[in-house]
Amino acid sequence: MKVALIAPPFIAVPPADYGGTELFVAQLAEGLQKAGIQVVVYANGESTVNAERRWRYESSQWPIKLDQYAWLKELDHTAWAVQDAAHICDVIHLQSPHGLAFSQFVQASVICTLHGPHDSKVSQFYARYPQVNYVAISKFQCSQESMPRMTTVHHGIDLSQYQLYETKQQYLSFIGRIAPLKGTHLAIDVAKRAGIPLKIAGDIQPMYRDYFEAKIKPQLDGNFIEYVGLADIKAKNELLGNSMAMLFPIQWNEPFGLVMLEAMACGTPVLALPGGSVAEIVQEGVSGYVCRSVSQLAKRVQDLHISPRDLRQYVQENFSLERMVANYMSVYKEAQTQGSEPRVA
Fold first, then answer.
1. Distance between CA 310 and CA 107 in Å, rounded?
2. Domain range for residue 267?
3. Is 214 in the same domain as 240?
4. Residue 230 needs a FRET pair 20 to 30 A away by CA distance; which of 108, 293, 338, 341 works?
5. Does pLDDT of 317 surpass 70?
6. How many CB atoms lie within 10 A of CB 224?
7. Would you place residue 297 in the very low, low, confident or very high pLDDT band (cuts 50, 70, 90)?
8. What CATH number does residue 111 fall under?
9. Same domain for 235 and 177
10. Residue 345 included in any domain
11. Rounded to a whole number, what is the distance in angstroms from the first to the last CA of the chain?
12. Which of 12-26, 97-111, 272-286 has the lowest mean pLDDT?
């Protein structure tokens, strides 16, 4: 079996810092190859994933400064990738909806992982291609969709890239886009209520610059509330691993939240507000705590009784790369067994 993994062209695979989908693609590609599956990754020319790589656009483009034109670039990249992959691969695995329109022209089995939040208009588009095998990344996300070929595969991570830190320092961590829906301002509120310093890492995208300037920047003092910029894998390990807990005060229905696994892999519990997949990932008292309010999060900071080793074991048993790879291999094989039904225009 030969599988094409088609990622968007904007961020390298794996990402230098920001990029959850691109990290997923990189780890899936290398995991599949270890399992004996041939893989071709379609990304951009800056990608370094250890697999055969093909690209149409050489350089990364992040953050995207011209949002109204970005879809044209992704459409062009994806159309080329689907056409190319159809000649050399048995399975085409898409990471965005753009490629679905081209699935009607190829004989290869097509898989599409849903990385984004539910959108009724996008779901109507999905419904036009019932022959595609869709993969939700959480049971919550899956419950919002109704395509006939639908399954759930939780993300997994390569634990060899994450170091277990058993001794913690007196600070909290936050990693993610600096955006209202990620709750960066709430993480600051939690830290102040708890009296524990906070280190923030993440991307400040142009569309959220005003939010950063108004809500986040005035709170930064370089000491108690500190913004450390973007974080590569080495910086993530140190930032997450040394912290008492990672704050995840989301304000939306998170489809998955890969950074929660990264924190847990470093032996650091997650303190989260509820929403989307959180309850599937954060097991109460084992991998962290789900609280109903900022005040409850601040109180929980003072009452953490989670073993870093047990936390790491929890990730190994439930969210390992090997488990994710095995599940995707089952999806690929099922798609090939089902074959292709007539295309829906």
1. 46
2. 160-318
3. yes
4. 293
5. yes
6. 15
7. very high
8. 3.40.50.2000
9. yes
10. no
11. 28
12. 12-26
Alpha carbon dihedral 281, 33, 21, 162, in 10-degree steps, equals: 50
* Residues 112 and 146 occupy one common structural domain: yes
User: The tokens of 314 are what?
Assistant: 């929890």
One-letter amino acid at 172 equals L
Question: Is the CB of residue 247 less than 8 Å from the CB of residue 291?
Answer: no
Torsional class of 229: left (φ above 0), alpha (ψ -120 to 50), beta (otherwise): left
* 343 domain residue, yes or no: no
Collect contacts of 231-238 with beta carbons under 8 A, ≥24 apart: 231/17, 231/175, 231/201, 231/202, 232/16, 232/17, 233/161, 235/17, 235/201, 236/175, 236/201, 236/262, 237/162, 237/163, 237/165, 237/266
178 shares its domain with 239: yes
| Sheet with 52-55, edge to edge strand ranges | 52-55, 38-43, 2-6, 91-94, 109-114, 133-136, 150-152
Is the overall model pTM greater than 0.90, yes or no? yes
- 99 & 188 share domain: no
If one counts the domains in the chain, the total is 2
pLDDT by residue (tens digit) across 189-214? 999 999 999 999 999 988 899 999 99
Task: Note whether 164 and 77 are same-domain residues.
Answer: no
For residue range 82-112, what is the model confidence (pLDDT) as tens digits?
A: 999 999 999 999 999 999 999 999 999 999 9
> Do residue 169 and residue 96 come from a single domain?
no
- In sequence order, the β-bridge partners of residue 42 are 6, 54
Measured in whole angstroms, the distance separating CA 324 from the mean position of its chain's CA atoms is: 13
SS3 163: coil
